[in-house]
Design a protein that fits this description.
Number of domains: 1
CATH class: Alpha Beta
Strand order of the largest sheet: 1-3-2-6-7-8-9
CATH topology: Rossmann fold
Shape: globular
Helix content: 25-40%
Strand content: 15-25%
Order of helices and strands: EEHEEEHEHEEHEH
CATH architecture: 3-Layer(aba) Sandwich
CATH superfamily: Alpha/Beta hydrolase fold, catalytic domain
Number of strands: 9
Radius of gyration: 16 Å
Length: 210
């Protein structure tokens, strides 16, 4: 059975969304939409934040895809969820001026899959504490993300995400993606987010939309 996006937390009531930029906030593995909608006060006040719940039940939370290990998606699974997210976006995005995707941890791998699948659907991407979805059938050819604004943020000592995947992601983003890349490192935060990091994400989103 194909996955569906059935639960979405919104920062604005439906009648307040028309014309606003949409920030699609994707939570980490084992979490849910509440962890991302709570970021709303730290993001620009003129955006609408939508935090979908991942479709796969996992312990007390949810996951975007089945994997072969941390940061290593199974292709059929992540592609099926990607299709479900695009189907949901097709229903909601038309009233918004732009769409930016924001991911954390497993949500970063999912966000990475979305921008690799259809880069022109997005005005930008903020990828926090994660990895791109390697070896999952995505097009990572030269300049795949040509001129797309991308924020990449991680603690170099983040022990959750395998270092080889982080380094592979960073090398491709810097040297081959063609993205307009903005990088931040936050030593000591581990696998988490901080106020300073969210301030940089907010500035990035505002600059993309300026």
């Amino acid at each position: 059975m194909s996955p569906l996006i059935e639960h979405v937390a919104w920062s604005n009531a439906e009648q307040e969304r028309a014309g606003t930029p949409l920030v699609v906030a994707l939570h980490g593995r084992g979490a849910d939409e509440s962890s991302m909608i709570e970021l709303t006060p730290y993001l620009p006040d003129f955006v609408t934040v939508a935090a979908p719940r991942a479709p796969i039940t996992l312990d007390q939370g949810y996951a975007w895809f089945a994997n072969r290990g941390i940061g290593r998606p199974i292709e059929d699974s992540i592609k099926a969820t990607g299709a479900a997210l695009f189907s949901w976006l097709d229903k909601v995005a038309a009233v918004h001026s732009h769409v930016i995707v924001l991911g954390f941890s497993g949500g970063t791998a999912m966000a990475g899959g979305l921008i690799l699948e259809r880069p022109h659907r997005f005005a930008g991407a903020a990828l926090l504490s994660g990895t791109l979805p390697w070896d999952a059938g995505y097009d990572t050819s030269l300049n795949r993300l040509a001129a797309l604004p991308v924020l990449w943020s991680i603690d170099v000592d983040d022990a959750m995400i395998p270092r080889d995947l982080v380094e592979r992601s960073e090398e491709w983003l810097r040297e081959s993606s063609g993205a307009s890349l903005l990088e931040f490192s936050y030593p000591g935060i581990g696998h988490s987010m901080t106020i300073d990091e969210l301030a940089d994400v907010s500035t990035f989103i505002a600059d993309v939309l300026d």
